[in-house]
Structure formats: structure tokens, C-alpha cells
Protein 1
Amino acid sequence: MNVQVRPAPATPAASRIAIADCDIHPYTRSKAAFDPWLPARWREHVSQFGSPRRLGMEKGPAYPKSQPNAARRDAYPPEGGPQGSSPSFMVAHHLEPNNVALGILNPLNAGQGVSNPELSAALCRAANHWQEEVWLSASPALRASIVVPYEYPELAVAEIGRWAGRKGFVQVLLLSRTAEPLGNRRYWPIYAAAEEAGLPVAVHAFGYGGGPITSSGWPSFYIEEMTGHAQSCQAGLSSLVIEGVFERFPKLKLLMVEAGFAWAPSLAWRLDKTWRTLRAETPHLTMAPSEYIRRQVWWTTQPMEEPEPREHLLDTIGWIGWDRLLFATDYPHWDYDDPAHALPLKLTPTQRQQFFFENARAVYGLDA
Amino acid sequence: MSRHVVAPTSEIPQGGRKLFHVKGRPIAIFNIGNEFFGLLDRCPHQGGSLSAGIITGLLQSPEPGKYSYTRKGEIVRCPWHGWEFDIRTGQSYCDPARIKTRAYPVSTEPGTTVVKGPYLAETVPVRVEEDYIVVEV
């Protein structure tokens, strides 16, 4: 494999608009990366028994990702290790040249979805310490996610309690493919704790629920998984609305991360239409589904749909609301969106400012 | 247009590629069977650096279950989103009529010719016994 480090973009950062990047993936440098924060009892357990997830015979993602570590081939740190594993290189390669003034860290493979409940909790805790000590210190722009063992809500709530209010931790992170649909009441304690702490809950695509990854079984191709996140996240969002999560937790802020967003208007239309005819089935909903969504849901942008003509995207964003989308690059992943090229459309200065920065600041309540 | 000497041919082995900057433009030079080709090192999609992509062939299928794998080593995939480009022309595979990255004419010249000029070779020391890659920009 031939690998070459990409030269920094020619435009100096200072001349670029300051942006918020609401989906950055820090990676572990080696398998031992969490060891400093993992009790010996669990280090030994991992080496003897591994950390299997709820995915049958699979050891990792069900579908190979087409690029090494699912990441850009031009993002290897010069000092070695996988893409996204070097804080200093992330600063030099991404944060500085793209003028990222606010960067939200979403660690994947951080113990979420591990079958053993206490191991899942121990790994999540280690991942949170790792973010605090290795990443937050690397750049004042970076913010951490509280990674929680969401399949074991009482353990997840304890983890939220430990980190909420701690400097730099700005949201609770879940993955989208949960064992039960996201709105199931077994997960309510997590939403209650996040709401009480004033922390948004971010649901990032992927995960290890154990069910087939599309609603009609296991597909043959990776492209179906990539595209299928839209349907999986629609099922999750429908569940959150219909089970009454937003009714019960009206101050909860929910972010759909890396799930696409062009599906959002059609889902809301369909939910509203069906709710009017079946309203008596779910009397706990006191307003139309779209109103809950409008009040409490945001989306990160990457991977942005690319319709032809591109102007269709303006209509779509208008239907969702210009205050609802948070720009994200997904660095260092291979399907990264470049802030200079990802939205090649004429925007008003207000739209641009909202899209690339202000919406994120509003959701996270930061003075960044 | 001017012709620029960028490197001795020995600097890019067969199947290899290397990034150069000529007149401020990033240009990726590829060696396919000792023929050299130059592409602007910027994917027309979102700007990924083509010189960092994998070099592959053209995989096509006339019907389900039948495949052909041809032109091995003549296609480069952007390291970001995997868009495929014909190294010989810069045309994209998915939409060749509309989407391409700029191709620059590349030739090789013996050192004896290069030393006579009128090539621009400010940064490349030239020796008469070697061959050189020349890009027209």
C-alpha cells in the first residue's frame, strides 16, 4: 500500500471561516491505549476472553470498510499508528488548516455494545479518561463525548453522573443500532440523566444491536450498509417520537450523527399523516410527531447527500430548518466532508454562519 | 505553456506515482509501463489528493455473474471517497463526459536534450546520462 501525507491546504487557516466540526473520530494508537485507565482485572479479562460484541461471529464491523481503518489514506500520522490516533497530527492536519474552532470527539470502538456489562462499563470509563487526558489537552478546540455502556442503562447513568459538568465533556454518545429501538423505555434512564445534566444525546450511526442491519435482513454489499444507516436511524427516531421520549423529556436535545439528513422531512410528513389517523393508539403524544422533531432533534451533516442539481439540497435544508444542521467532517474517515467543498452552493451569510458554526454553539450552549 | 523538468525517470518506478509542484500547481505524475502521465492532484469532487490514492484496474461487469478486470494499474482511486479516474486522461469512471481532473502532457527526454534547453529545470540537477520527466504546464 502506498501512502503519502497530504500537504496542508494552500489557503491559510486565518482566511477561512471558523467552523464547528461535530463529528471527529479519535482513534486508539494501539490495543493497549486504554490500559492506563483499565483495572488489571479487566486488562487480563480482555487478553484472555476478548471483548465480544452483540454481533454473532463477527470480530469487528460486519462489513469491511473499503479503506484501511475506514479512514483516509492520506491521514496517517507521520510518527506511525492508524489514522486519527495522533492528537498533534490531528491538530496540524485537520483542526488548524480547516480553522476548526469547536471539534466534537466521538470515539467509536470504545466499549459500547460489548456483551459483558461490567467490561462494557470499564471500557467506556477508560475511553472517557483517555479523551480527557490524551485529547482535550491537545487543543482548546476539542470537546469530549461521554461514552456510556448504553445497553446497561443503570451503568450508563452512573457514567453520565461521573462526567457531567466535568470540563470539556459536552454530550452523551450512543450508537444507533441498539438492541431495542432507541425509544424503548429501558433506555429512558439515559435520556432522563442527560436531560437533567443539560447534555445533548448524540446518536452516531453504526453499533452492535445484534439484529440484521437493514429492516429486511443482511444485505450483500457494503454500499447497502452505508445507505441503510438512513433507514436504521429513521426507525430509531420514529421510536423516540412514538414511545414518547420527547413528550416525557421535553428539554432533551437529540442529535442524529452521520445518518444523512435528507430523509428527515419525508419521515416527519409520513409520521404526521399516520398519527392523524391512528392518534388514539398513542394518546401519550400531545402534539404531532413533526413538532417533537422540530423542537428537539438536530442532525450533523456528513455524509451530505449530493443531489443533482445541488440546489435541491437548499430546499431540503429549508424544510428541515437552517437552525437544525450541524456541520461535521467525520475526520479521519474515508467519507470525510471537506468544509471548503462539501456544500458548493450560494448561501446567505446568516445561513453559512448557522450551518458551519452557530447551530453547534446553540446546541452545546458554548461560549466558544 | 512551458515545459518543466521535474525529476529523472528513475525517481518513479513502474506502477509508482509522485507528487510535484509546478508553477504552484500540485501535479501527480504516474508511471504506467514506463509511460508517464500527469494529473492535477485534486479530485474534482471535494479536493482529495489523487497522488495518495490506490492504483487499481478497471473492474466491469457486462451482466450479473460475469466480470472483466482490465487496464490493471491505469486507474487511480481518490483516497477520500474512492472516485475513480483514468490515469491516462483524467476522466472519471462514473461520469467521464462531465467530471475529470486536468491532465498535463508529460514526456521523457534524454539528459543530452534537456541540458540544451529550453526546458525549465531550476530545481533538478541534470546529468547527460539520465532520462528526465518533462511536464507541460
Note: The mean pLDDT of chain B is 93.
Protein 2
Amino acid sequence: MPRTPAPARPDVFAALANPTRRDLLQALLERGPQPAQSLAALFEMARPSVSEHLRVLREAGLVEERRAGRQRIYRLEAEPLHEVADWLAPYERFWRARLAGLRDLLDSGAADVPAAPPAADS
Amino acid sequence: MTEARGADARTSIHVDELLGHPPAVVWRALTEPDLLARWLMPNDFAPVAGHEFTFRAVPLPDAGFDGVVRCRVLDVEPARLLRIRWRGGRLDTTVTWRLVPEGRGTRLLLDHEGFDPDDEIQRRALRGFGGGWRGHVVARLRELLDALAV
């Protein structure tokens, strides 16, 4: 079995950066849990390289491995995907930071003078 | 394969904040340009429907954002509601503030709506925003998630 050095920290993005690994996830999504053998057949790949990709996905928490007899069955783990795909999280952080600033401003009393807003009706 | 595409992609942000000040005070902080500048961004806002103004932010050239948020006041209901069109870079969104009296304070509800997850540049803009996303990965993920959500 060929061995490559394991990354220092499992990285979901790094795991997903590879098109073959994304295709593997897609296959697990569409077909449900699969043995490594079927996945290898599906992608016409050598077993060791499929195993290697599955190992990276497993370390990133994207697939779960289960032994059944002499087979290893792989299943998609969706949780990390939800985390990564929350593409609006940076905007949400932006607003939360600004609202903290608003709270500070209000607490400073800067907006306290209860002046009537200037009439701006049309 | 992409029939469910977009069905579940998040296109809006909702933030809910309870503030210990009455709506009239919160309203001033939202609508007086000097006060608004102190917690949000420098601006030439006026609480008048139809008024066009800008917010000035730090430009993010890599994200196609020149630092100018171009806005238009859509709705004004003093001490209750403020809705503005919010365009910056490739974003064309709507920001709505709602002020609801609660006890002696105000519940402030923010809706930032209209994000387009299909726009590659919007996704790239997030990198400048501090997200560090990799657009092509997110695009593929979205397809996966859409399918999962069915």
C-alpha cells in the first residue's frame, strides 16, 4: 500500500480542492453508501488511489468508513459541507461587528438627545 | 444533476439584536449621518425615500469592490422601519432595519437580502470580506447541499 505523509491538520477545503474527491462525494451522495471496490470501478481507477482519496476525505470528516466483512463501506458525512457552504457567514460577521459598534455608540449616550427627526415628508 | 440547484442556497442574512435604548434613540443612530458614520461607515445619508447616497468603505480591488456602497432609500417609517437598496461591487441587495419596542429598549431586526449565490464575483468578494472561501469549491458544494436538502 503506498503511503503519503498525512497533512498536519485535516482540511475540508483541501479535501474538496481535488476534482476526483468531489466526484467521489457526488457518487456517495447519489448512490448512497458504497464499498471502495464499487467506487474504484465507477471511476475506473486503481484501488490504491481511490483508497488514498477516501482516506483524505475520511480525515476531513467528509466520509465515514465502516467495515462489513472484508469490505470497507463508505458513507457521505454532510455536516462539514454545511459548515463550509455557509458562504454568507462573513457578511453576518460584518453586521454583528457593526451592531456591537452601534451598541457602544448608544451606550455612550451620543444618540440620546431626543430631538424630533426633521420633517422630511413629501 | 443540478435540478435542485439554488433551491436551498442561502441568499439573505438576518440579525436580531436587543438594545437597551428606546426606538427614537436607535432611530437617530441609524439615520443621522454623523452618528451612522460612527458605527457603520462615512455616508451622506438622509432619511428621505428616493434619496441616493453612498457609504465609503475600504476598497477591495481583488474582489472587484471600489470601496463605494451605492445606496438608495426605499422606505422610511420613522422609528419603525428603514429599507435601503445596497449596491457595492457586484452586490445588488436590500438592507432592511426594523425597530420594535421591547420593554424599555428596542429589538432591532436586520435583513440583508438578495445575495446571488450563482455569481462567481460575489463569492469571490467574500474573500476580500475575510471569508477566505474558494469559489469553485463552494459552487460544487452548493450542488451537493441542494441535493441533500431534498
Note: The two ends of chain B are 13 Å apart (CA to CA).
Protein 3
Amino acid sequence: MKVQRAVRFAALVLLLLAAAGCWDYADIENRAPILGLGFDRSSDPEMPVLVSAEVPIASAVAPTPVGQAGSERRSPKWIFESTGATVSEAIDMLNKTMARAPVHRHIAALVVSREIAAQGIEPLVDYFLRNSQVNIRAELWVTDGKARDVLMADPPFQPFVSFGLEAALLKSETFPAVPRGVTIEHFNRKIGEGGAIVPRVELGEGELITSGAGVFSPEARFVGFLNEQQTVGAAWFLGSLKSAETTFPCPVDEERIVGVTLRPGVRRKRFEEAGAAAPGASGPRTAGPGGASLEGASSDRKGVDGPGLDGAGAGVGLSVLMEIAGTVEVSNLSGCRLFPWKNAEDRRLLAEAAARAVKLDAEAAVRRAQELGVDFLGIGLQLSRRKPGLWKALDWPEIFPKVPIDVSVRMTVGDPGSIHDVPVSK
Amino acid sequence: MPEPGKELAADPLELLARDVLAAADVTWVTSPEEAYEAVLGGGVLVLVPGERRGLRADNKGGKSRAIENPILEVTLRGPRDSFTEVLAVNTALIRRRLKDPNLRVRKFRVGRRSKTDVALIYLEGIAPERVVEEVRSRIESIDIDGILDTGYIEHLIEDKWWSPFPQHLKSERPDRVVASLLEGRVALIADTTPFALMMPATIDAFFHSPEDSYDRWFPVNILRTVRFIASLLSLTAPSLYVALVAYHPGILPTQLLLKVTAAREGVAFPVVIEALIIMFFLELIKEAGFRMPGPIGQIFGIVGGLILGDVGVRAGIVSEAMVIVVAVTAISSFTAIDREMGTVLRLLGLPVLLSAAVFGLPGLVMALLLVLIHVAILRSYGVPYVDPYPFFKLQDIQDTIVEMPIGARKLRPAYLGSKKRRRLRGPSGGRGGGRRRGEEGR
Amino acid sequence: MPFRNDNDRIPSAAAGVLLVTSIAELNFVLGPRLTVEVAGTGAWIVVIPAAALVALSAWIAVWLIRAFPKRDLLEIATLTLGRPLGVLLGGAYVVYWLLRAGQMIQVQTHVFRLTLLEETPRAAVAAYIVLLSAYLVAHGIEPLARTALLIAPAHLPLVAITVPALFTGDFGRLIPIGPPDLNAALRGVWSVFCNAPGVEVLLMIAPFLSGRGSALRSSLYGIAFLAVLAVLLQIALLANFGVVNTKQFTMPTLELSRVTKAPGFEGFRLDPVFVVMWFVVTFASIAVAHYMAATAVRSLFRAGRSGLPVFGTAVAMLILGAYPIGLPQLFEWVEAFRLYGVPVMSMGIPLALMLAALARRARGAGEGR
């Protein structure tokens, strides 16, 4: 009886398999992975979305005895274009020009032109979040020029622009002029929390230049760019860097330029109520010998101290103080006659100068955010978490451009370098 | 049979049997049929006029193969002797290692025409009685013309003949058989074949090499894990490749995807057919290599590899990636300690491949579930095939994927049902045993 | 005496394993969004009192097991409520389990369609699942319990996506800590409880447990294990997506698997692997529900060792699982089913049986002693 049962079972399974039609089967050489998508505005008003797709030619990337046709070296990629009334239609229309079925799960880069971004990229975000077959980890980029031109570039180290852009983002923690990468999912979250900054890419003399960022409002609309200084300042605010190189004039000889590596420590945002001035609300704190770091401060992760209202300022009832701490590693004194190994006062001067440089960057980011009216620095988010009652009473988008925001930076010289003395020049 | 130590009776035949005949094996013969069998079986028949019974003395010499190195179970460390085709020799090899008076050897004669001598060997008090009795009853129920190998017996007495999984352990090594007996298993050896059977079998035991107990725990555990992984690979590698390449290319990293795509371009067949072709070629080469004598067999391997690895790729019949996948499959299956289990797992990869070819990754997983369910259902003499993994006693982990050092394996595995669990008493050697004899590091 | 393989005896520890298997199913995929919708940032906290409710259900079940040794749910119902009511209850449970299994097959095949097999008919996948389940269930409770335990490591992918997500998340998104108000808290607890069906499996395997002593303990361990997983998952979802975005996704756990990068495997997109590994867990749950339905049918119709209950229920499961239904309607069905069906079947009826048994005992007419 058990044997019969087993036989019946096997027969049923075989029948099932035989009746099946391998419905989703498709050999890989009949598919084409899309690595990058570019979105521009097309000249056709009825089909306003112009999509460019960077598609690799596998046999050109990895020639094999079977796949190689002839001995000529082909370009490793092809840019396909299509237009559509919507993002999904334009992407679907790629099938018209692509001889192979596209695979969307390998999309690494989404480059959006300023033109399209200014109208809002909510349709793009919706398409990527709604479809399970696309790569939700695709990184967003914004460009002032044509996205198509960016995808057509020929980066030196990578065969594909998408790979090059992916590699560029790896630097963001040590080169904060390139902000941290923003995936579609991350972008969706960030605009819900006040605004997002998206890395910027431009095409300059055939090379890709990745620095700066584009700012998107909570409506997913592009509102403006950040230059390098503002981007670095935003990174200090957001805590998205591990180190940053900067330069400043030598405190004892302004003609000499000092180069340092800065490493962030803890950051804290304070919200002060009306009538109560924030202690040390402006300028860097005075540091003792060797500097001192903030105690008991929390990182952005743990939330912030309670907010308050300030009768001073522009009458918005609130002022914000951002406290940033960090350490300085001296990388190049360039003839600046300071001896940080031996002299505590020299260390203090260097630390203060570095703090001023960071403060300038951070304040540049703050001014730009307020100028654009988009809180991509996450200040409102912290306020909403700590004081939800107060948050509800405020119309944050309205008052954010006017809220006095001060930045206080405290630096400590942690590593003066491998030499105790300046090299003798005579 | 005349029992040693019995009072001398006034029976000349008994006197003859007990004190005169020097053969190890003396039995009574009470019928003409038994007499014919004795003579035809190569024994000596002693008939005394006036007696209605005779004596059979089995003192077979005759030509037989010398004790040689094991062929299939090669180890770097451990004994180098293996069973031969002579039952008495094999029994003696076991007795040399187990000089325990509780070692029982029960003889049967199986096969109407072949009358093959079969011995059931176990340690009384350690092997569970129900297993012994079950094996005995199954052997006695065999009614067949001839037994030429323990494989015949195996297929006649196993629980589920239709299962692809072997339900008996097999070995040509006496040390492995003795180790099984000491664990509480029962062994079956037969005349005219060097392969012994051991039962009950669990799937785990098919991956244990006798060398594992001789080498140090550190390399043993790593290599054992490698064996398990290799076995899984042999079962799943081609189907995983087909599922990823034909159904879910999105899973692969982009660089790898491009390499695989490039490798596939120009190949004449869909990836499934390509997989089937190359798996077929692999089996062809393997079979041909086995059948050909010595050097010719080696040449087959080289020629086959060259044909597949180079010419096949150039001709566009198979891709390089597929050659790698199938080579990994083959090598993985050959790491199996039990040759049959290795072959079974490799060939089970075929239905798994078909399932993956129809349903992709879900099909692969469902086929593996089917294999898992089958293995979970299977029993060998009442012991679940997957023991001790589910519902185990903690100490049974001592010899599964991991093998504890021998000093830590104090108890026999619980799932074998032995009543006398303890096999190691007290701390041994330098592990805290004895008095301190100074701090010199002794 | 003939040698018998005993496929109808399981150790008491198996109770915990089967309970986990019965409950786990798709709850980790479907449940989080529903809980966040009602409890907001407190979605992780409400798991704890909900787990206590599930533990209470398990305690009630074990009480019944001890009060009626070697009896299953249907027999207990017959003994306490009489044959007509007992049969009615049995029939209701059969329908309930078949609906549960059908739901799981529906959702699972839809998930496959969305993520892995766009064109493959769901009926084909459903048939494969049902065949596997029938093969397993036909051999009794012991292989089922063994398979469930062997499948237990398939829970690891959930840990593999949750733990890295805890490191990348922003715990500020859990502020304010706790549900917004008491009403939200209660609804959150109820939502989690309703998404944890299957406690009644204890009552169906009771006749096969070989030692009663540790059934409650192993069940509580199992519930604790699931509760810890659920808490971690909710925290990871909230920390990574926040309340708004968690509610936005249909199945936020799947989205989490799409965004999480496994250390060392950054280039791989492993969410399909998570989907198929979680399918293994779901399959075990389907098999347990199938087993319960088949056993109940066998008991109701006194079918002995016939294979018909298994195959009959398999056919019913296939019909329910392959029935063409769109995803929005399916989710509405699932939510309604769980909201009304689970509390009654997992706790309400066992509680009623317990009270009835106590009443009978008090009247001195109980047979349970």
C-alpha cells in the first residue's frame, strides 16, 4: 500500500512538472541587465519623460572563445533611449529598442536631470517602491546637465558610469564633498522627515565630476544645489563623515596654509526657549590645554535635548544650537611655525583655527538650507521626536527659514603628525 | 555442536569432535542433504560406521585473496587491512580487535542454491536486542536462489527498497565494523564478499570516516564540515546555477552576471539542456574510467576532461561556467566517505535540477524539501534516519557534524538504543587524571 | 512481535517545536504593518503583552491536555459538550485549519509571483506545495515534528536581515517610545495576538506526546523565541523605515530584506533568498495546519488508517490555495479571518472547554479525572 502511494505521488509530481511550461524561464544571454537609468525632459510634450538606459555588452566586457565575434574590441556598453508619458511607460518603452528583455534588478544609478527633478520625482520614487522587480537600492544622482550625457561618459577606472558612480560614493565618508549615497528607499524616508540631499554629478571635459549635492523638498522637488563647502558643512551636521581634509591659514602667519584631517566626535543639538539665551550660543567654546570634548552629549541617534522658544532672533520662538566636537590630525604645516608636539598653546591655536574652518562650512550649510527653505539638516526631525507637543504647535516649514541656528565647534589636536619639529629649510 | 567443557561422554563421535578434530568449526550432520552440502561446501565429512550421524569439519584452506589494503576506503592513518572473500578470515579480523566474550557470531546459510554463509555479529548487552532480533528475522525470511554479495541481502532486508538512500552502512574495513559494534550497531558479513553491512544506519554515519577518530579533533571537524558542504553542493550546484542564471539573474552581483552572460553567449543550448548534457558526459567518463583497466582508465579521465573542458566550450556546446559547476559537483560527490551515498546525492541532483528548471529557486527549495521530508520519514530498523539531529540528547552531538575528542565521548549514542551507554570511564591520560608528578609538564 | 516503527509518538519537547511552526508562518511578513498601523512606535512593545496572551492560550491548552490525558481536541469537546456539539466544533475547526492553510498558500504563491515567478501560474506552485504537504502528513506526527525541527534553522534569515538592520537604523525613529494611547496599545496587543494563530496544535498532538511534563515549558520557550524575533523585527523596521514608511509598504519585512546588505555579500541582492528561506518556514506551518485538519477529519469520520483524510484535505487546500483572488481582496480576507477567527479558535473555544470541564468537575460528573 505504501508503495502504491509513493508511486501515485511520484506520478502526480511528474505529471505536474510535465504539464508545467517553465513559464518564467529565460536564458541569461537573452536578457540585458540595465545598470543605470537617466531621466531627462524630452522635447515631446505628450511624452515628456526621456529615459536613457546604460546597458552592458557582456561579450565586450568579458570576451570568451565562444562569445567573441571577430577580434575588434567593442564598446562595453550601449545607451538605449525611449520616451513616455510617465516614468513606467518610458521604462517599458525601452523594450522597443532593446532586443533583449531588460533586467531591472541591477540598476545601480538613477541620474535625474535638474529639469525633471524640478518638477518633482515622486513618480520615479513611486515606480521604484511599487515594483518588486526593480532594485530598491539604486542610488540617486542629480545633474545640472543632461542625464543621458552623464551615462554616455567613459570613466577611466570602470567600464560603466554606474559602476563609477557607485565607487565614487564609497569616498563620501572621507571626502564629504560627495555626500552619502541616497537609495530610492532612503530618499523616500528622508523627504518624509524634512528634505533630502542627493549627490551631484556633472560632466566636465569627458570626465565625471562628483561633488556637491542637490536639495529636494518634502514634495520630492529639486530646489537647488549645494556647493562643496555647503555639502561638507551638511556632512558635519548630519554626522555622515568619518574624516575630512581641510585647510586654513596658519594662525601665526596668514600666508602659510595648514592642512589637517578632521575627525568628528559627538554632536548635539540644543533647542532653547524664548528669553533664555543658550549658553555659549555663538562662537567656539574656550578649550583648555589640549582641548576638551563635550561630556554627556548624545549623537543624533539618541535624539536631542528639549527645545525651547527664544524671544530673540526673528521672533520665531525658538533658537537652535548645534554643538560639534572633533579631533585634528595635522597633516601639513607648510612652514607654519607652530610646534604642536611641544607647545600646548600652539595646539590650542591650531584647534581653534580648525574649529573656525568647520564652523564656516557648517554655517554655510545652515544658511543655504534656510535660504532654500528645506530642512535637510534634520533639525525639525529632532524637535518632533523630543517635543512632539511643541512640534505640533509650530508650523516648521514656515518658521525654519527664520530660526536662529548657531553652530559651536570644539576641536582638539589629537595627532600632530610623525615629526616633532618642522623640517629645516635652511 | 559439542560444547567445550562438557563431561566426557561415552560417545566416540563426541570425543572425536571435541578432542581429536583440530578444526575450528565442527558441526553435526544428521541427514544426507547436510552430508552433500558438507562435501560440496569444501568441508570434511566424518562418518563412523554404525552411527546415524556424522561430523562436518570446516577447515577450509584453499586459495583466497590475501588481506590487502582497502580499495574504496582509503585512509592516511589507521589500520591498512581489509576484509576478504572468506568469512572465517573476516570473522577472525573482527575477533582480533574485539576479544570480548560477549561478541556473538550467529551463522546463517542464505540462498537455496548458493547456501552462502552469513554471519550476524554483535556485542551482547550493547546492541539492542530488538535490532538483533529484527535483523535475524529478516535474514531468515530471505528465500532466494543465490546470494553473491551483501548487496543482495541489503536490498532484501531494508525497510524501504524504493528509497534512493542506502539504509545500511557498508565497509570493507574491520576497524570500521568494530567501531560500529562498539557503538551498539549490528554487523552482517557474508562469505564470498569483502563488504560488511552495519545497521541501523543514520544519514550522519555515511559522512564519518574511520580516520576521524584517529586524527586530531581540529582538522577532523573542519574536514567533516567540508564533507557535509560538499555533499550539499553535489546535490544542489547545477540546479542552483540553472535557477540563478535562467530565473533570477538579479541575485548575482553584476560583475559575475556579466561574466556568466559572456560565457553563455554563443552556446547552442539552453542552460538546462547544457546542464543535462554535461552531467551525462560526466557519468559517461566516470563509468568508462571505472571499467577500463588501470592506465587506460586514467587516460579516459584526461581525455574526457580535455574534451569537455576545452573543445566542448570552443564548440559552443557548453559554457565555461557550466563546466566549472559540474566539475565542482563531481569533485564534491567524490569526497563522500560512502561511495554509494555520494553517487545517490549526485544523481538526486537530477530531479532537483528539473524542479529548478521549471520553478526556479522555489522549485529548487521545494525539491530539497521533498528530499528532506523523505529522509525525515525514513527509518533504519526503527531508528530515524536523521537521528540524532532532531530531538537529540545533547551528548549525541558528540559525533555528528562535529566530532568531539575521543576523551569527551563517554557515552554511546542514545538513538541507537543501547542499554549500556557508558564506553569511557574516568578521565584519561593527561586530562586531569592521576596525581601530579611535578610541574615539569609531564 | 512484529517490529513497528512508531510514527505516532513524539517527545514533549516537540510540542514547543510544533507550536513555533504553527504560529510562525507568514506572520513575520504580514503582521508588522498591521501592528504599526494601530500602535505606531509602540509596535514593538505591544508584542510582549501579546506574547503573554499567546502563552495564556498555551497554558489553557496544556491544562486541557492534563485534564484529559491522551485525548485530542475533538474528543475533549465531545466529552465536555456532548457529541453533537463536539462534532460541530470539530467541523468548525476543520474548516478553520483548511482556511488557514489555504490563506498561507495564497499569500505565499502571491509573494512568489511578485518577487520570483511572475508568469508561473499560482495553481502550479500551490499544487507542488500541497503535494509535499500531503506526502509529509500522510506519515504521521513524528516525521512532521522531525521535519519541523530540521526546518527550524530556516528562521535564521530573519535574524540575518534583522541584526544588520539594527546597526544601520536610527533609533530616534522609535521616539516617542510606546503607543500613542491606551486604545492604540490595546489594539496593538490584539493585532499581534490575532497574527499568532496555531496554539490549538497542542490540543491535536496531545495523544501522541510521550511525556506531559515539559510540554508547557517547551511551548513557553517557543513562544518566547518567537516573541524575541518579533520584537527585534519591529524595532529594526521602525528604526530603518519609521512609522510612516513601515505602514506604506505592503510587506515591510520583505522590503527590509531588499535594503539590508549582508556583510561580505554586499554585491548580492539576497531578498529572493530570504523569500525562499521564509517559504520553508511557511511550508512547515502549512503542513501542520494540514495535519490538524486531516487528523480532525479522520477522527470525525472514524477513518482509521485510511489515507483519504489526508488526500481529501489536500484537495480542499489546493482549491482554497489556488482560487484566483487578487491581492487586495486576499489581504482583506486574511485580516478579517484573523481578527475574528484566531481569538475564538486559539483561545475562546479552549477556554470554553476548560470552563465546561471545570463545571463538570464541580458537578462531579467529569470524566476527565
Note: The first strand of chain B starts at residue 25 and ends at 29.
